[in-house]
Amino acid sequence: MGISREASQDEVKRAYRKLARKYHPDVSKEADGEERFKEVGEAYEVLKDPEKRTAYDQLGSRWRAGEDFTPPPGWDAGFEFRGGGFTDADVDQFSDFFASLFGRGGIHGFHAHANQQGIHMPGEDHHAKIMIDLEDAFHGAERSISLRIPELDPRGRLVARERTLSVKIPKGISRGQQIRLRGQGSPGYGQSPAGNLYLQVDFKPHRLFRSEGRDIYLTLPIAPWEAALGASVSVPTLGGRVDMKIPAGSQSGRKLRLKGRGLPGQPTGEQYVILQIQTPKADTEATKQLYRRMRDETKFNPRSALGA
């Protein structure tokens, strides 16, 4: 729209009106006037709303017209938004980029009623995504979290108000589940209660583990002789290290199960260990001799199944 990132809402509105008049199908002589008119309308739909504008500021620089776009995981973590989604507009009118950000359902409406005391309206629910450690999901924890709430200041410029909350993380919570903080949404009107704040849980990247539902996965490096001969090795889990037997003749990619070592719950998850054979470097004459002996004495051909 030809305005700066710091533009006020009045500047956004003036830019929109100017461009809308220029490209309106009833007025414009431009060959691509109708398409530009739609683009301007889409841009205004985003920039006039503090929440959608914040989302675009986060990701707009990563998008190129004509390219498929998938928001990166956790892009919206730490932002607190009203309602159940980012927009109540017709998402069918959005480009693929904007639909991928805002096409997640309309904002929940309210039901107000009037009586002799006046109008009563429940407070609006708020939503946010938080990133937590796998260990906190396994053990349960109480953590202090900070959320940023997009707002307009008195001059109509976009700002982020921050608030900090103490949150109890339930033991065994999994990715995608929500924590409800009662009364932490928008205040209600009259005698109606405040809305709630719903925190959708996601996990921070872990240096060892990844999760699928309540199951935990670990890639375990092993030596060739441990794979060939079998071994008992110490394996990390979220609950501490345990001993695990590697069957003789194991290959890379073999999946072993540690029963009940995933996230707690009904049912409790498992931990799956994926074996990954690592070959020692032939960086000394002794190891080179050892590899030559293996080559000559085993006559092993890993490509035999591929044919001559």
Q: Could you characterize what this model shows?
A:
- The chain has 308 residues and is an alpha+beta fold.
- The chain has two domains: 49-107 and 121-204, HSP40/DNAj peptide-binding domain (Sandwich), CATH 2.60.260.20; 209-301, Urease metallochaperone UreE, N-terminal domain (HSP40/DNAj peptide-binding domain).
- Helix content is 24%, strand content 27%.
- The protein has helices spanning 9-23, 33-47, 50-59, 96-102, 134-139, 224-229, 285-298; strands at residues 80-82, 113-115, 118-120, 126-132, 141-152, 158-169, 178-181, 197-203, 209-212, 215-222, 231-235, 242-246, 255-258, 271-277.
- The strands form five sheets. The chain has a four-stranded mixed beta sheet with strand order 1-4-8-7.
- Strand 9 and strand 10 form a beta hairpin.
- Helix 1 (9-23) packs antiparallel against helix 2.
Question: Quick summary of this structure?
Answer:
With 308 residues, this protein is of the alpha+beta class. The chain is 24% helix and 27% strand.
Summarize the helix and strand pattern as letters. HHHEHEEEHEEEEEEHEEEEH
Quick one: CATH superfamily of the largest domain? Urease metallochaperone UreE, N-terminal domain
Mean pLDDT figure:
81
| Oligomer designation | single chain
The percent of residues in helical segments reads 10-25%
Class per helix and strand makeup: alpha+beta
Radius of gyration: 28 Å
Q: Please give the alpha-carbon distance between the first and last residues.
A: 64 Å
Rough outline: elongated
For the secondary structure, the number of strands is 14
Please write the CATH class name of the largest domain: Mainly Beta
What are the low-pLDDT stretches, counting only 5+ consecutive residues below 50?
A: 84-89, 103-116
Classify the fold: give the CATH topology of the largest domain: HSP40/DNAj peptide-binding domain
The number of helical elements comes to 7
Q: Largest sheet at a glance?
A: 4 strands, mixed
Strand ordering within the main sheet: 1-4-8-7
